[in-house]
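Tutorial, part two.
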Amino acid sequence: MATRKKPQGNDWKAFQADWKQADHPKKLELAGQYNVTYDTAKHWCSEGDTSYTETCKPKTMSISASELLKLRPEVQLDFVMFDIETSGFDADWDILLTACIKPYGAVPIVFRADHYPTWQTERANDKAITGDIATELRKHAIVVGHFSSRFDIRFLRAKMLRHGLEPLPLMFGIDTWRIAKDNFKVSNRRMKSLSVFAQLDMPKDEPSGDRWMRAAFNGAQDAMDRIVQHNIEDVMLLEKLASISFPYLKSIPKL
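Running the prediction step on this input gives:
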């Protein structure tokens, strides 16, 4: 069995520099070069080595309070509606087709798989769209979805794991399906059924299984266009449903 030995001297300095600049997949590769786990390599770089702590020592503030107040945080402390459309229900068998992220009161941000180069020749490779969705989502603090705690977030996380992407940071999630489950005695808690019951405006488009099959398997653009439109209508409807559901929200759990 190979020795798990921490690099020394110039090798250690090079390891530190590479680790500091590397993304998550590269860090996994660096750890593998020394036959250790990612956690062990991470521990090496945080166990108090003088050269490392000097590199990572936080700088003292060198701007005025007024300048600091003008800075915007990296994470926007806002609500975003989130909904995805996929070719099926399981991330190990199915692919991402589209996603919408809609900041409250703003225009939806749309992602669609057929706008990526891999769509024509390698449709099963949804790494690029997964990464872009995650990059946008991580900018926001609170994610609102319907059945999202059981599907949308879990599907996205599974895809991120599959493609070696960094996990989402600490975020909070609101699921209008769970609010309905905890508060309303109704026969059906699907978003459409709840919206009809609450007399909200309904989307005109009615999805069909054939459309999803033609998009996923044939790459039909007209089918993708309709799925994207359905996705946008869903987040618009979700925003209305969330607005009337918030008074019943007792707490906001971690995502």
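Residues 76-248 form a domain with the Nucleotidyltransferase; domain 5 fold (CATH 3.30.420.10). In part three we will examine how such features are distributed along the chain.
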